[in-house]
Model the fold of this input.
Amino acid sequence: MTSLVLVRYGELALKSAPVRREFEHRLRQNILGQFVRAGSTCRIRADHGHVYVEADDGEGAVRLLRRTFGVTSVSLAVEVPTDRAAMRAAVLEMAARHVRPGISFALRARRTGTHPFTSQELGRELGGDVFEAYRSIGIRVDLDHPELELFVEVRGPRTYLYADRVAGPGGLPLGVAGRVVALVDGPRGALGAYLMMKRGCRCDWVASGEGVALADRVLRAFDPRAPTAVSEPTDPLDSAIAAQLAQSHADGVVLPLSVDDYTNARSRWGDVVVFSPTVGLTDEEVGARWHAVEELAG
Done:
């Protein structure tokens, strides 16, 4: 059975109409790229503010989508017509998979388009249906701190129901903001490369030491067009970075600098733009953020 994944994005919605169309197109292309590299297939459609991905393996699709920059969160969802009986049947079926004796729950309803009900009215009605169906096992309504949340999104003639949200990396779609070359020699360098990718930059890397495994195992997961292997450079690191800059015509270099290192690095690289997004982070902060990146990469 085909699964449906509802994909949300954040910053893209704030752009002007032409830029938004370009960014949304890039996001869809990047999603397709993730599935192609994984040897999977999917079908993509979109409306204003959401992308919908249909795939045979729902859990696998969620893993791929949460590695796609621009995606803020995803949910395995059920789609039904915007019809009272269809919505009631779907929400009761969804509740049956999650309700347990004594659990507290809330039903959150949202709608777009013109309908003969408000979001609050729909939430009360469907929440009441769930409560009545499971009153005998002691479920409770708690709108402030529920143990279970059920979501209903009415979008015109179609309605989507889901019970969880899985966070994605957010940011901008990969490939909308130029290209950089990053030195990845450990977690700080790897995190710097990741943060530039999150802002839409394609990133080539020169990896050394511990950074070889971090780039090949983690960073590659976020870019379907990344190289299939990373090897230790034989040239001095500055020479290897300069060669990669020339080869890729990159717009700048990303370095794992401390504040005290920045002046020397700025003079060493001349007219090349130098980025160091981790310059203000302690080693402990870098470690915590990189651990979160590894979790996203799976």
Summary: The first strand starts at residue 3 and ends at 9. The first helix runs from residue 17 to 37.
